[in-house]
Amino acid sequence: MLENFRYSLSEHPSVVNFRWSITQTWGATWSFLISVIAIYIVAAITLHLLLSLLRSRQISLGPIPAIHSLVVALISAFIFTGLLLSTISEIRDTRWFWRRTKTTTAFQWLLCFPLGTRPTGRVFFWSYAFYLSRFLHLFRTFFTILQHRKLNFFTLFNQSILLFMSFMWLEFSQSFQVLAILLTTLLYSVVYGYRFWTAIGLPRAQFFFVLNCQFVLLGCNLVCHFGVLLLHLLKGGCNGMLAWSLNCVLNGVISIMFLRFYVNVYMIKRKAQEFDVSDAHFYDMKTEKAD
Length: 291
Description:
mainly alpha; globular
């Protein structure tokens, strides 16, 4: 049974023979990506303005947010497992090629794809699955607007850029994407599992769980980006470095905005403690903005 599961996730012909192509892959065009991001931003702003003008009360969505969190957690865990198994298989099958590309270890391959790498095969199949899963994350913005009447620039920018970057990973066969997806899907499976846990009424953590998980991911990504740059300079080049450079700039902007928000939240926490207000109250008030 386990062997069949491994075969389905890493050895199935649809996984092994995957090819990112404008003609063969849904959502693989720049026009599609730009249209989706534009529709998402316009729809979110329009809904927020409409509800503000109508001065309507908060809308109860019932179990929908909890179900959404559970689905995202399960899909993220599935992508993590599939990519992990496919990465192991890919390393096993392509070691012979590394001798001609100055790649000596599996970790170097995870950070630095050899020049000439094309978006085909196992790991890019799961990169495509991750790209598709990003569309599911967009719904959370509308849940926040309907439930809490909140919409901020960081939410729109963050969701749009993450979708844009996952597209570039495939379009330019960008280095570091395998490790980035493994780290991100592992975090999403934990964070959205926690959100489902709290949405069904189970107790919250006594600290800012979601924010701290995102902070850990931010630190891991920062360390890995330095590793990519070092290998690019020492090993004769990594694939997709132009896209990686743009990725670094966008990640830097998101990181600065997140760190600013992170500091503000802990300042609010300190004020809450001074006035003997429960941290959980402030967590409930701010957690939706953490996306």
